[in-house]
Amino acid sequence: MQKIALLLLAAGASSRMKDHIKQLLPYKDSTLLEHAVKNAKSSNVAEVFVVLGANYDTILAATTLKKVSIVRNEEWHLGLGSSIAKGLAYIGSLSQNYEAILIGLADQPLMDATFYNQLITSYQETKSDCVATNYGSKKGVPALFSKKHFSVLAGLNQDSGAQKLLIDKNTLSIDSAAKHTDIDTWEDYQWLLNKIAQ
Known about the structure:
Number of helices: 7
Radius of gyration: 16 Å
Low-confidence stretches: none
Shape: globular
Number of strands: 9
Order of helices and strands: EEEHEHEHEHEEHHEH
Distance between the termini: 40 Å
């Protein structure tokens, strides 16, 4: 079985959250971040790495993140690309030999282990170098990248993240049934709470 790591991005400053730290917002029986970590750990990956940046000390003090590796991105203000690069650099420094990396976002609370596993299964069955989430007009994360893309991912430094890899016509994409909904604003968060209350 191929060894796959999951890199969960959670380094942003929650600038559109009305002075709230998004990662620490209550959700179900924990926080948005802890919920995302739980789903990541429930998937068929060998290890989960969480990239933190803004509010690093506050988030670590307020959460219980067991059996995951924490990567600190002090250049989080440069955007998603810098967090991906920082995560890849850390993973590359380890003695583990990962065949692929699955990149997910901590602010997609509807994203679950079932969908992560669908990406993994598609990767293994199709032998595609990249399997992404279908956003309709584009492809996005969560996305799984084979090791041939590690050097490119490690060199990212912009907020566009891995888009230059995802737009490749050979990138396979899968419909997530709206699980990829981002929680970016306070209104998004209220919508999420209303959804789970129904």
